[in-house]
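Input record, target 12 of the design panel.
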């Protein structure tokens, strides 16, 4: 029988790509999204990609009554939880709203799951829980901490799930620590679609490439890295989506939880990403070096071996494909 999966935040960047991957894997995803950070026509574009009309509920994970209705009407078998606020800088300005959405929202969802007898959840965590890494590549047993309210909420969510699973063996959680998601779906129909000036590197470079922003500001070139600019583990959003499908399948199959990094194991610098994007869009992209951004670390990349061992997950797409798919998405978006 086809398993029905609730995707909270399923109209968002990673949620929408996971929707496509779940349909392709034979699941029946149901989207819950308040569309605070997603365009209203994402479901229509998902229908064009997958050939089926997505099931969509508009609302918040903070709405307990709505969650109860969804679990009753849709007969949910498991949950993939994306709905969260995720901008580091914004979290410093709005800690209360970040705790409310990211932690209270998770609690509200878990209580609705328990009432409905649903005990499988895949949780979006982040490499940000490693803070300043004490070694590279970063394994899952590296020290964790937080340097901003966003990182606090991600770590608090992980620790809540750990306590809950220890209290009741019916629960099983797939905790996925994303490194740096980038790129877009190969169809060019969905991708990262930030409302304001992007904080993250790839979407910012994309807006320079389409002429919406004048140049990339490189936040410091005096780090202890090969070219002095920040090094990160960029992972294609379609690889990330496939990692969620593997995590869900493992939970449904074994009923045992897992916590894994989702990264490539390779680090690339800001200037390397800029060069790769210039290659993808066919022109040199302007940049200026400015002082470091507060809170940034020099380098961060994953040890991806546990995800390979436990889930059979390996990222397959490189930075060239991330840039090419992002360029196809933003240039198509600009034309439409
Ligand atoms: C990458 C590199 C910047 C923008 C954050 C969150 C993390 C996760 C991913 C949610 C750094 C440099 C960036 C720019 C630049 N989010 N940069 N100019 O900071 O590694 O991670 O996003 O889960 O939790 O912390 O990603 O893309 O902001 O920065 O030079 O305009 O690009 O200094 O070296 P980051 P990022």
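The sequence produced for target 12 reads:
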């Amino acid at each position: 029988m086809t398993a029905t999966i609730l995707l909270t935040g399923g109209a968002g960047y990673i949620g929408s790509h996971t929707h496509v991957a779940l349909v392709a894997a034979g699941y029946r995803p149901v989207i819950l999204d308040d569309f605070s950070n997603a365009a209203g026509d994402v479901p229509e574009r998902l229908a064009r990609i997958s050939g089926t009309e997505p099931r969509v509920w508009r609302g918040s994970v903070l709405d307990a009554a709505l969650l109860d209705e969804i679990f009753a009407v849709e007969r949910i078998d498991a949950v993939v939880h994306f709905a969260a606020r995720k901008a580091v800088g914004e979290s410093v300005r709005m800690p209360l709203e970040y705790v409310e959405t990211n932690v209270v929202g998770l609690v509200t969802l878990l209580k609705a799951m328990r009432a409905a007898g649903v005990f499988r959840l895949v949780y979006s965590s982040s490499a940000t829980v490693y803070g300043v890494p004490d070694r590279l590549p970063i394994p899952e047993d590296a020290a964790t901490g937080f340097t901003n309210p966003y990182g606090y909420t991600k770590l608090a969510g992980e620790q809540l799930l750990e306590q809950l699973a220890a209290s009741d063996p019916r629960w099983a959680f797939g905790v996925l620590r994303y490194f740096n998601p980038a790129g877009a779906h190969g169809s060019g129909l969905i991708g990262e679609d930030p409302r304001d000036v992007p904080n993250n590197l790839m979407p910012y470079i994309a807006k320079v490439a389409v002429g919406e922003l004048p140049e990339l500001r490189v936040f410091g070139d005096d780090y202890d890295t090969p070219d002095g600019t920040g090094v990160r583990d960029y992972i294609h959003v379609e690889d990330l989506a496939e990692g969620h499908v593997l995590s869900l399948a493992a939970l449904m199959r074994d009923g045992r939880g897992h916590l894994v990094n989702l990264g490539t194991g390779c680090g690339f610098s800001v200037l390397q990403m800029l060069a790769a994007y210039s290659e993808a869009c066919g022109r040199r992209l302007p940049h200026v070096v400015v002082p470091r951004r507060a809170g940034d670390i020099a380098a961060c990349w994953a040890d991806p071996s546990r995800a390979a061992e436990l889930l059979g997950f390996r990222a397959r797409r490189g930075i060239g494909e991330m840039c090419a798919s992002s360029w196809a998405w933003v240039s198509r978006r600009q034309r439409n």
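The mean pLDDT is 97.
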